Structures are given as structure tokens and as C-alpha cells.
Amino acid sequence: MNKKVYIGMTADIMHPGLIHIINEGTKYGDVIIGLLTDKAIAEHKRLPYLTYEQRKEVVENIKGVSEVIPQEDWSYVNNLKKIKPDFIIHGDDWLTGSLRDVRKQVFETMREIGGKVIEIPYTQGINSSSLDKDIKAIGTTPDVRLRSLKRLINAKPIVRIIEAHDGLCGLIIENVEIQKGDTRKVFDGMWSSSLTDSTSKGKPDIEAVDLTTRLQDLNNILECTTKPIIFDGDTGGKIEHFIFTVRTLERHGISAIIIEDKIGLKKNSLFGTDVIQMQDSIDGFCNKIKAGKDAQVTDDFMIIARIESLIAGKPMSDALERAFAYVQAGADGIMIHSKNKSGEDIKEFCLAFRNKYTHIPIIVVPTTYDHIYESELQKWGVNIVIYANHMLRAAYPAMVNVARTILENERAQEVRPFCMPIKEILELIPGTK
Ligand code: SPV
Ligand code: MG
Predict the structure, then answer these.
(1) Rounded to whole angstroms, how far apart are CA atoms 30 and 18?
(2) pTM summary value
(3) Hey, which of 365, 369, 370, 386 would you mutate to test ligand 1's pocket, going by the most ligand atoms within 8 Å of its Cβ?
(4) Using one digit for the tens of pLDDT, what is the confidence trace for 148-190?
């Protein structure tokens, strides 16, 4: 029997470096590719442009590849123990950086199973990370962007979304990342918030900013980002209008719309019972969901039903009754909202909902219960956390402070420490020079 050679890869962008590794592998035996699944990658790298099935099809057809199997974890250990290869081949790029621990585990496991690790020099000048940057500069297509939210929900324990109200916010959300151990923390996508879209225009959050106007801003965000967008659709408006909204958003590559089960003049939920919050009847809102689902043209666009019972001071039983009815009507996810500071009501809702539906995504907006960690929300069964207004709330006091300081000093020197250096702002947007 031929010797077994294991090579782990993502293979999103094929390049000569990867072909070189496969060619090297064939010198030692039959090459088995452990193709990393979306789930294995999601917490460490950007989600691949191609789906697992697409990547598999490409790799299966590369000369020298005997077999492609899924690698479900970032760590190689489980697959190595299962396959017991005679060799594993990896580029020597894992000697430093976040892959160091992965390397250590591979050496230990190969020693245990009596195999050998072969490290080959990394192909200089070409690698997935640099190609990734080039591809990111080209952007994305509406279709790829639209589909990416569902892929993220399937791949990540919790999907992290933050509000964006203009292109600059979009750029920050697209690019900001931190490394924690071997985990890369990023925002997975953007929330187009009615509150911050309205506020940034000096308008109240009462559905006064129309869809066309909101789409103009959204277009700026679309132009400079690739991550998925969830659109705050307020009440969804009249059913006859909602079906056009759904199709318009799909055409733009928006992944999901969240509509809230309110009627009449919409007021922001965070007023709670300080204002009149009128809820639609269950039947009325179910009809809106159904009309939207019938109208959508892609399979992956999501219509998420937002339940305002707890905002309107109604009991948990009402929230749950609505949630179950909305799912039956075809909702692709449930957003439960509350302005309670403890988060206990949200927890209670999530646990009860999960008792009945194990897979329908739950979305939460922890603006008032902001002490709850994502890991805790995850335990409650939450799939998407939306930080709904923080970019705008951060910008406003910073701008007021700078404006006041200039007034006080009658010159701008004192605000220098609060401002981005001119050189940096000139270099921020590609193509400015
Ligand atoms: C928004 O961001 O506009 C929302 C969430 O709808 S909330 O402001 O909490 O109602
Ligand atoms: Mg809103």
C-alpha cells in the first residue's frame, strides 16, 4: 500500500505555492487534502470567497491529489488521528505567528502516530494573504455578499454585526481586526440602522427617511466594503410596498431585512412604554412576512421578524406566541428586542424559543444589557449580535469635544491629540494621492 501524505489547506485562491506543496507531497505517497471547512476557518481567517463544495471541486481536479476530505477544525489533530498519515507537509511559514501552536500540536500528534512532518520553504512573493488583499481591493458581487450572511451563521458560533451609517464606518468595520491568541476577531457584517441613518441626517427615527434616501447612503457603504449587510426595515411599511423593498434590497446584495411588528407612527423601541408602541396583529404581521417571502427572488435572502412585545410592556407569553407564529409564516430568523437592563427577559425568551426551534437564528441587540458577553449570548442560543448604534454614538461626543475645544482656545492646536494626523487621513482612502 502506498504511503499516505496529508496536506491541510483552504484552497480559496489557487496559486503556484499550493501546487508546489502538492507536487512535493506526491514524492512521498498518495496526497490526501484536508480541506478546511467554513466552520474550521471562520474564527481565524476571512471566510473563503468560494463555498466548501466549490473549493472541493477545484482541488479534486488538481493533478496529484488522490482524495479530498473535510478538515472540520483549525487544528489538524482530529484528522491526523483519524487518517494516521505517514507524512504531513506544510510550508515553513508556520514557524512564527499565530500558526505556531498548530505546528506544535501537529509535531506531537505525528510523533504519537509514528509519522513524519515535512516542512518545505514557503514560496516567496506569493501567498494567500497577499492575494487576499488584492482581491479585496476589487470588491465583491451582490450575489456573493448576499449569500455570505447565511454562510457565516452556519460557520460561526456567533455572528458579530455593528452599525454603519456611511462609507467611512463601512471601511472601519471592513478592516478593523484584533488577534487574540490564535483567534482573529473581526466584525462579520454591518447593520444599516434606522436610528443612526435618521440621526446622521438630523431626522427623527420615525420612518421619515425613505428607502431611496437610505439606499443612497447604503450604496456608499456597498462600494467600499465586502461584508454582509442587515437592513433595518422598520415596520416594513405597507405590504404592497414591502415586496418592492425586498426585491430592491436583494438586487443590491443586502443579505437580510429585519422588520418589526409595529404599526402606526413608528417610534424608536428604546423609548419603551414612554411612547405609544402599537403592535400589529399576529395575522397581519404574518401576512407581511409571507408576502415578503413570496416576493424574494434569491434563496438566500433572509426576512427576520422582530418582536416588540417586551418593548411594548407585554408578557413573555405574547412574545413567544408571536415568535412561533412568525416562524410558521416563513420568517428566516427572530429578533427579540428589549430595553430591560438586566438581559434576563432576553435570556428567558431565547431559552424558551430554543426549546421549540433548535436552528432558526435568534438575533439580539444588546444596547441596554451591554454587560452581557458574546459568549453568554451564545449559550442562550443567540446566533447574531447587533451593536446597533455604537459607531454614531462614539463619533458624536468626539466631534462635540473638538468643536468646544476650538471655541475655548480660539485655535485648533489643542485638539490635535483628539484628531487623526493629516498624513493618516490622506492615506486612509486608496486612490487619494
Ligand atoms: C435601530 O438601530 O434603528 C434599531 C434598534 O431599530 S433600536 O434603536 O434599539 O430600536
Ligand atoms: Mg430601527
Answers:
(1) 16
(2) 0.91
(3) 365
(4) 999 999 999 999 999 999 999 999 999 999 988 878 999 999 9
